[in-house]
């Protein structure tokens, strides 16, 4: 049996870590505060 990883599993794992990114955090805070997001740091 092959040990290949399902691409959908990798996608789900990466989406689960999205909340750890600083840019996502800033974007979520801006959405809650109803203000434009930024500046972004790229991490």
Walk me through the structure:
The protein is mainly alpha-helical. It has one domain (1-43). The protein is built from two helices and no strands. The protein has helices spanning 7-16, 22-33. The longest helix is centred in the middle third of the chain and has 12 residues, at 22-33. The protein is elongated, with a radius of gyration of 15 Å. The mean pLDDT is 75.
Name the structural class.
Answer: mainly alpha
* Secondary structure: number of strands: 0
Task: Average the pLDDT over all residues and give the rounded result.
Answer: 75
**Run of helices and strands:** HH
Number of domains: 1
Terminal residue distance: 37 Å
In oligomeric terms, what are we looking at?
Answer: single chain
The low-pLDDT segments are none
The total count of helices amounts to: 2
Approximate shape: elongated
Rounded to an integer in angstroms, the radius of gyration calculated over CA atoms is 15 Å
Approximate strand percentage: under 5%
Major sheet description:
none
The helix content is 40-55%
Q: How would you describe this structure in keywords?
A:
single chain, 43 residues, mainly alpha
Give a short overview.
The chain is mainly α and 43 residues long. Helices cover 51% and strands 0% of the residues.
Secondary-structure map:
Elements: H1 7-16, H2 22-33
């Amino acid at each position: 049996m092959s040990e290949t990883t399902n691409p959908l599993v990798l996608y789900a794992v990466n989406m689960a870590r999205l909340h750890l990114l600083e840019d996502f955090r800033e974007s979520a805070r801006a959405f809650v505060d109803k203000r434009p997001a930024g500046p972004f740091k790229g991490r």
